[in-house]
């Protein structure tokens, strides 16, 4: 088996999730290559060394460019704030290395376009962290839709809401800067846009509205200095799909009581499917003639589930979805699959988000082909 050197940039929540996923993938899957945790980088050198030791990486770097230049690194995983995705990915692609980047792909459509073109020219495997699509229940939902079990799809209703910014006293962070993040649409809504495209298909036309509810936040925890906020706190949109289906989308990071409410209802001429990420091991299905909705529960008959549990009802979690995403990535690197979201597909998500922002600014329906 050939060795594949993993380089991880970032040590926050997503950095830890990636580290767990790489460790879990080599523990539970029969992979076509041997994963070597070659290097970890963080701007805080001491933290980089501490996390590298705790997570099993061979060495630590205080400069991300040193990690990309490291000859033992074949795959660069990027888990930094959004505005750093572009320079890091472009440097990795220039070095001819595969890239696994967290979402959203970039902070502008122009950057995303340059990244997908560079990936195409480099001829390397790329993936973007839309890990919710790797849930065995989401894969089952897509299979049911493609098999026609719901009939002709006529509507998609989607929502992704959390409440981690609901408190107006929550301090300013990099997520609050337009050039660094992009608001609730970029942070949460991008997952929902990717899910809508994955399950229903391309979107042709959009209309949208957004709102910044809390125009100022404390500069830091407990600070009396306030900083202005320009990013959206919540977004609502209407969608028209190329296959004739219509849809709605809403995303908010202010919605009290919700922690990971990525949810959808997809209706067709013969039935409805419903899902909520807060109950990620379930689908609700209604078919014409049924007395009511039935609950479909995840179990070992679904691809991917059995790697973690041989019994139904024992349930997968967020880190298992990330591990399934890593497995697909490794298989793609070995030339044995292409089911994940690459830079080209992630650019389509960014293009759709750009159409929504244009619709907000100009208060009109926007054809995605305009973007």
Account of the 3D structure:
The chain has 371 residues and is α/β, with parallel strands linked by helices. It is built from nine helices and 17 strands. It folds into two domains: 3-131, NAD(P)-binding Rossmann-like Domain (Rossmann fold), CATH 3.40.50.720; 134-312 and 342-370, Dihydrodipicolinate Reductase, domain 2, CATH 3.30.360.10. Helices cover 33% and strands 25% of the residues. The protein has a nine-stranded mixed sheet with strand order 16-15-14-13-7-12-11-8-17. A six-stranded parallel sheet has the order 3-2-1-4-5-6, sandwiched between helices. Strand 1 (3-9), helix 1 (13-28) and strand 2 form a beta-alpha-beta unit. Helix 1 (13-28) crosses helix 8 (318-333).
Summarize the structure.
By secondary structure, the protein is of the alpha/beta class. Helices cover 33% and strands 25% of the residues. The chain has 2 domains: 3-131, NAD(P)-binding Rossmann-like Domain (Rossmann fold, 3-Layer(aba) Sandwich); 134-312 and 342-370, Dihydrodipicolinate Reductase, domain 2 (2-Layer Sandwich).
């Amino acid at each position: 088996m050939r060795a594949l050197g993993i380089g991880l940039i970032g040590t926050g929540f997503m950095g830890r999730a990636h580290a767990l996923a790489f460790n879990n993938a080599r523990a539970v899957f029969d992979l076509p290559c041997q994963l070597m945790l070659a290097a970890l980088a963080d701007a805080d050198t001491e933290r980089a060394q501490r996390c590298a030791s705790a997570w099993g990486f061979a060495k630590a770097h205080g400069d991300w460019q040193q990690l990309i230049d490291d000859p033992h690194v074949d795959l660069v995983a990027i888990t930094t704030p959004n505005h750093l995705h572009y320079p890091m990915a472009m440097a990795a692609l220039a070095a001819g290395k595969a890239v696994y980047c967290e979402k959203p792909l970039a902070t502008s459509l122009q950057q995303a376009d340059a990244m997908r073109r560079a990936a195409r020219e480099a001829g390397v495997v790329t993936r973007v962290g839309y890990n919710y699509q790797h849930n065995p229940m989401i894969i089952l939902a897509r299979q049911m839709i493609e098999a026609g079990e719901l009939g002709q799809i006529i509507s998609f209703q989607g929502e992704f809401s959390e409440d981690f910014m609901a408190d107006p006293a929550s301090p300013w962070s990099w997520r609050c800067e337009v050039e660094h993040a992009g608001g609730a649409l970029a942070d949460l809504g991008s997952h929902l846009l990717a899910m809508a495209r994955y399950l229903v298909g391309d979107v042709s036309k959009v209309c949208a509205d957004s709102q910044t509810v809390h125009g100022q936040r404390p500069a830091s925890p407990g600070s009396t200095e306030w900083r202005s906020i320009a990013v959206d706190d919540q977004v609502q949109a209407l969608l028209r799909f190329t296959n004739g289906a219509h849809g709605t989308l809403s995303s908010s990071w202010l919605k009290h009581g919700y922690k990971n409410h990525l949810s959808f209802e997809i209706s067709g001429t013969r039935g409805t499917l419903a899902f909520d990420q807060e109950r990620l091991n379930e689908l609700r299905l209604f078919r014409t003639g049924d007395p009511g909705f039935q609950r479909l529960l995840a179990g070992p008959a679904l691809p991917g589930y059995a790697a973690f549990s041989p019994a139904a009802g024992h349930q997968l979690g967020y880190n298992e979805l990330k591990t399934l995403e890593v497995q697909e990535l490794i298989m793609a690197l070995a030339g044995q699959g292409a089911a994940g979201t690459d830079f080209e597909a992630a650019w389509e998500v960014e293009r759709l988000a750009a159409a929504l922002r244009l619709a907000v600014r100009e208060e009109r329906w926007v054809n995605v082909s305009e973007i």
